[in-house]
Amino acid sequence: MSYPSASVCLVTLTDRPAPTTVGALRASGHEFRTLREELRANLLTALAEGRDPWPGLHGFESTVLPQFERALIAGHDVVLLGERGQGKTRLLRTLVGLLDEWTPVIDGSELGEHPYQPVIPASVRRAAELGDGLPVAWRHRSERYAEKLATPDTSVADLIGDVDPMKVAEGRSLGDPETIHFGLIPRSHRGIVAINELPDLAERIQVAMLNVMEERDIQIRGYVLRLDLDLLVLASANPEDYTNRGRIITPLKDRFGAEIRTHYPLELDAEVAVIRQEAHLTAEVPDFLVEILARFTRALRESQSVDQRSGVSARFSIAGAETVAAAALHRATVRGEAEAVARVVDLATAVDVLGGKIEFETGEEGRESQILEHLLRTATAETVRTHLRGIDFAPLIDAIDAGGSVTTGEQVSAADLTAALPELPPSERGEADLYDLIADRLSARTPGERASAIELALEGLFLARKISKETAETGETVYS
Question: pTM for this one?
Answer without folding.
Answer: 0.85
